[in-house]
Specification:
The chain is of the alpha+beta class. It folds into two domains: 10-208 and 314-397, 60s Ribosomal Protein L30, Chain: A, CATH 3.30.1330.20; 212-307, no CATH class. Helices cover 22% and strands 41% of the residues. It is built from eight helices and 28 strands.
């Protein structure tokens, strides 16, 4: 007799470090199945580069052992599961979920040039046309090829049609024969993006941008496109110099490693906390005018604040975001989570191994899987963005 059926969300995760692809897929799928009440409504699969040449065999094993109704996945430069991070060793991770009452729809998206922009192909009409009412408990998981698909086009399209739907995911970080490997149900794709639309299943986004704020808030008083001309009535470089000079010594030392600009997205809040800023690097400066350029459009009147990034601020930011998420979940807690973390984090940023995976495990205590991304997708201030150096988490409440 199998496990009793349940009406609550359940999730399970399995992982394998075997060098043999078929064996690794079988082990990971079996371990995921062992902790799940059937049916398996969703399987999410991440596989390191060593396994991508046999992606079809990998998919076959997962389908045979889990019989998932839907599946998405991609090639990963490193995998995460059960509080561990496998950065430089073979890994297959299978995350499986039972989502009673939910509607799940997978899709393969591509983009083709249309004049100066792009046209998305494969996006269902129900997602591309603006809805009169926002559906409750709707979200999208997206895994994109960083070379053939512009994720900003997808986020822009959904901002117009589904402005409050959270989009979470990341850019594939391992390839085979020069192309990405994306998994959708029983198919293997080498370009575009694969996505899963969920309706009737709550997914809570948790985004840690790995940076801490320093100095005072400032208003942009001159701007054009992505160039900040003035901050609080002075040339941007001059104002930033004043702010940095006034910082405590330990914060000035952090600034020496690089300055980031945090942009407030929702100006309607009474005060701005750490998660209310979209953090972007300074990508250029003009000494003659004192202007700076960042990787995001800006506007006059927008509030900004300096941010710094190091291991300590990244650790603090992640743990604070997870504490807030745990409080929002309440006593029921999480059934499972998917973690999309930057491939510049892990051992490249932290001295201790398994940092992000262990932090999520400690905070949520739920079956978690993920991978090291070439870019992470998640909402800040109610809008979806493509990030870097971020840990983005899709949390499934119990």
């Amino acid at each position: 007799m199998g496990p009793a059926k349940t009406s609550t969300v359940r999730a399970s995760v399995g992982a394998s470090e075997s060098f043999d692809t078929v064996e690794a897929a079988a082990q990971a799928a079996d371990r995921a199945r062992a902790g799940l009440d059937p049916p398996c409504d969703l399987a999410v699969v991440f596989a390191s580069g060593q396994h991508l040449g046999m992606a079809k065999w990998l998919l076959s094993e997962v389908h045979e052992r889990l019989e998932p109704a839907t599946l998405i996945g991609c090639g990963a430069g490193g995998t995460l599961a059960g509080g561990r991070e496998l950065e430089d060793t073979p890994g297959v991770v299978v995350w499986a979920a039972s989502l009673p009452g939910a509607e799940l729809e997978t899709m393969h998206l591509t983009a083709e040039r249309d004049g100066e922009g792009f046209r998305l192909l494969g996006l269902p009409e129900s997602l591309s046309e603006r809805a009169d009412e926002q559906a409750a408990d709707e979200s999208l998981l997206a895994l994109c090829d960083p070379f053939s698909f512009p994720p900003e086009e997808l986020l822009g399209a959904l901002e117009r049609s589904r402005p409050h739907v959270p989009v979470l995911g990341g850019l594939a970080s391992a390839s085979f024969a020069g192309g990405a490997v994306l998994l959708r149900d029983g198919e293997v794709h080498t370009d575009g993006a694969v996505a899963l639309r969920l309706r009737g299943a709550q997914v809570l986004p948790c985004v840690s941008q790995g940076a801490g704020p320093v100095g005072p808030e400032m208003a942009i008083t001159r701007a054009e496109a992505n160039v900040i001309g003035q901050l609080a009535g002075k040339p941007a470089m001059e104002r930033l110099g004043e702010v940095i000079a006034a910082l405590p010594e330990h914060e000035r030392e952090l600034v020496a490693s690089g300055v980031l600009i945090g942009l407030v997205i929702d100006e309607n809040r009474p005060e701005y906390e750490r998660g209310d800023f979209l953090v972007r690097p300074i990508i250029g400066a003009d000494r003659e005018s004192g202007a700076i350029a960042i990787g995001e459009p800006v506007r006059v009147g927008q509030t900004v604040r300096l941010h710094v990034r190091d291991a300590a601020s990244a650790d603090e930011d992640l743990r604070e975001a997870l504490r807030a998420q745990a409080q929002a979940l309440g006593s029921d807690g999480a059934a499972g989570a998917l973690l999309f973390t930057c491939n510049g984090r892990g051992s490249h940023m932290f001295d201790l191994p398994d940092h992000d995976a262990a932090a999520v495990e400690d905070s949520l205590g739920a079956p978690t899987a993920g991978f090291f991304c070439a870019g992470e997708i998640g909402p800040v201030g109610g809008r979806n963005f493509l990030h870097g150096f971020t840990a983005t988490i899709a949390v499934f409440p119990a």
